[in-house]
Amino acid sequence: MDNTPIYGVSSVKGDNGSTTQAIYNQGNVISIKLNESNYLLWKQQVLATLEGFGLEGFLTGERKCPESCVPGTLNEDIVPNPEFLAWNRQDKLIMSWLLSSMTNGILVGVTGLTTTKEIWDTLESNFTSQSRAKLMQLKYQLQTLKKGSMTMHEYLNKVKTYCDMLGAAGEKVTDENQILHILAGPGSEYNPVMVSITSRVEPCSLREARAMLLHFEGRLEFVEQPSFSSDGSSPSANFATHTPQSKNYYSQGGN
Predict the structure, then answer these.
(1) pLDDT tens digits, residue range 28-51?
(2) Does residue 241 carry a pLDDT above 70?
(3) What are the beta bridge partners of residue 11?
(4) In this structure, what is the dihedral angle of CA atoms 6, 10, 15, 16, given to the nearest 10 degrees?
(5) CA dist., res. 12 & res. 67, Å (int)
(6) pLDDT at position 230 over 70
(7) At what angle are helices 152-168 and 206-224 packed, to 10 degrees?
(8) Cα 24 off chain centre by
C-alpha cells in the first residue's frame, strides 16, 4: 500500500478573529498513486476524501481565493488579508497531498501550477478522453466475456471484477444487469439453470444466481465423472478388455 498522507480538518483562527479550516496529517487514505491508467479510480478516492472533510471547493473553485491584501486601519493603507493567508495555507496543504499521490510521470505534467484547482483542471483535461476510452473498453470486455475453459467460480469473479472497475469509474452496474452479463457467457450445457433463473416469477438475486450456477457446475462435474467397478477399474475399460476383437467371433459360435 502507498504511504500517501491524508489531512484531517482542524479550526484555525485568523488574525482578525475569523475561523477557517486547516488540514493536518492523518495517515494513509489513497491506496494507489496516479499513473497513466488509473485516473478514474484515483479521482473517486480524492473526491470522496475531500468531500468527507468538506474541502472539495478547493478543487471546483467554489472556495475562491480571497484578496491578498485589505484596507488597513489607522495609518496603514493596506494590510495582509488573514482570510487569504488561511485559504492559501489550506490550498497548499491539499496541493501537497495531491502531488504526493502521483507518480513521477504525472508530476512532470503539473510542474509550475500554483493552486489545487489548476492541478485538478489540468488533470481532468488531460485524462478526459482517455477515461472515456477506458470506460468503453471495460464495457466491451464485460459484454463479450465468455466462460470458455474457466471454472464457473473464475468466470463469476471475472464478471465481478469488470463490474467493480466500472463502478469505481462512476458507471455502476446494477445487480440485474450483472446477472444478464453472467448469463450471456456460459455454454449451452448451462441452459437448464439459465432458464430456471430467468423464468422465476420473483426476481432472482445476484447471490442466488451465482449460487445456482456454481451448484449446477458441481452436478455437471459429478455426472461427467466415470464410475468404477469394485476392483477399481472403469466398466468401459473392462468391456474393451473382455470383448473379443475378431470380427468372425459371432460367426464361430461365440456368445
Answers:
(1) 467 789 998 888 788 888 999 999
(2) no
(3) 21
(4) 120
(5) 18
(6) no
(7) 160
(8) 28
Alpha-carbon dihedral 172, 174, 177, 178, rounded to 10 degrees: 80
Taken as a whole, the chain contains a residue count of: 255
C-alpha grid cell, residue 151: 471454472
Say which residue the cell 465423472 belongs to. 225
CA 248 to CA 64: how far, in whole Å? 100
Containing 87, the helix (H) or strand (E) segment is helix 82-100
Residue 243, by phi and psi: left (phi above 0), alpha (psi -120 to 50) or beta? beta
DSSP result, 24-77: EEEEE---S-B-TT-HHHHHHHHHHHHHHTT-THHHHS-SPPPPSEEE-STT-S
Q: What is the pTM of this model?
A: 0.52
Beta-carbon contacts of 9 under 8 Å, excluding residues fewer than 6 positions away, are: 21, 22, 23, 53, 54, 55
pLDDT of res. 232: 52
Q: Cell 473382455: give the residue.
A: 242
d(CA 120, CA 54): 16
Q: Where are the beta strands (DSSP E) in the chain?
A: 5-13, 19-28, 69-71, 78-80
pLDDT score of 234 more than 80: no
* Average pLDDT estimate for 126-152: 88
Q: What is the average per-residue pLDDT within 240-253?
A: 41
Average pLDDT over residues 100-115: 93
Of 26-35, 93-102, 159-168, 178-187, which range is least confident?
26-35
**Alpha-carbon Rg for the chain in angstroms:** 32
